Amino acid sequence: MGLGYQKLGSGNHKVIALHGWFGDQTTYDSMQHALSLDEFTYVAPAYRGYGLSHHLSGAYTNREIAADVIALADALGWDRFSLIGHSMGGKAVQRVLVDAPGRVRKIVAVAPVPAAAMPFDDATQALFAGAARSLENRTAILAFSVGNRLSPAWVEHMVRHSVQTATVEAFAGYFQAWSKEDFAADVKGRDTPIKVIIGQHDPALTEDIMRQTFLAWYPKAELEIMPNAGHYPTDETPLALATSIETFLRT
């Protein structure tokens, strides 16, 4: 049985949009009213253990996500497609590129995790590793990720949604996938066009990190810094994000 997903639009340009650690197939819902649905067809799957794929268990690795995404594209009859990936999904889309390079048209990586392992100190590692079973840890992570500048009600909503959408096993497993896996050597030099979009107020995935990773690895990478956003421009600035994504994909 394949991944559960949402589908939107009927355009010729096919796009698969992958979510982050705290998300699911609804991650991009805030952008829907700004999308050109006669030009693009969007499919947003949920990873194993999340959302519409909550019933599916697995190894919870980037390689497994990539295999599931490629199988979904096959089931849809999509030979070529573009990819969007937010946060953890920004790492996963790079794995799809490695495993199916001839099929990927373009990539948009939103507040993305690089293809290398994350250099966490002990305290940060403990905070994130404990988040699978601690609402307090999830709250601290989410508040920090947007620069401690957004409504506590939004943070609470995101925490509550993450608990409802993901199994504890999947949440814990995918943390290892996005924080520990390293396949940077496999992506270096790939000439697929890629746009990296980060939030001005994201304290962790910063311009310096993007320049040291994505812009150094991908010859056709470009960077946009989105004002008034932290780690979640999908929620913080959805209209600007949708416009930026589609402008890149259609050029």
CATH architecture: 3-Layer(aba) Sandwich
**What do we call the CATH topology?**
Rossmann fold
Spans of 5+ residues with little confidence (pLDDT < 50)?
none
Summarize the main sheet. Answer: 7 strands, mixed
Q: How much of the residues is beta strand, in percent?
A: 15-25%
- Main β-sheet, spatial strand arrangement: 1-3-2-4-5-6-7
Estimated helix fraction: 40-55%
Distance between the termini: 35 Å
Number of helices: 11
What is the residue-mean pLDDT, rounded to a whole number? 98
Q: What's the overall geometry? A: globular
Topology, number of strands: 7
Query: What does the radius of gyration come to?
Result: 16 Å
Order of helices and strands: EEEHEHEHHHHHEHHEHH
Oligomer: single chain
List the topology elements.
Layout (H helix, E strand, L loop, with lengths): L4 E5 L3 E6 L21 E6 L16 H15 L4 E6 L1 H12 L4 E7 L11 H8 L5 H11 L6 H14 L2 H13 L3 H4 L6 E6 L7 H6 L1 H4 L3 E6 L6 H4 L1 H13 L1
Parallel strand pairs: 2-3, 2-4, 4-5, 5-6, 6-7
Antiparallel strand pairs: 1-3
